[in-house]
Backbone:
């Protein structure tokens, strides 16, 4: 089962990378907010920016709606980012997020 899942994920990543590279070559690339990338691989991925984006999306999700908690108020977790805040590296952003 593990080998099948790894194989399937690998094929999906290769196909998505090929499609993204082809679209960029034809001038129909997707918006990346100025982050350097090659296909789906972001060569200057900012971990700080990704954590902030995920925190914002989580805060806006229905998961934190007070309707889910009967009689109590939903409390969103506080996220503190510490360490090397300017660190960037090459990675597939969707896999990190």
Residues:
């Amino acid at each position: 089962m593990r080998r099948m899942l790894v194989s399937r994920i690998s094929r999906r990543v290769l196909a998505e990378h090929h499609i993204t590279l082809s679209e960029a070559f034809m001038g129909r690339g997707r918006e990346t907010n100025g982050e350097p990338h090659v296909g789906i691989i972001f060569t200057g991925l900012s971990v700080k920016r990704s954590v902030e984006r995920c925190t914002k999306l989580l805060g806006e999700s229905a998961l934190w709606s007070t309707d889910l908690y009967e009689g109590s108020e939903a409390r969103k977790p506080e996220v503190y980012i510490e360490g090397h805040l300017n660190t960037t590296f090459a990675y597939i952003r969707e896999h990190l997020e």
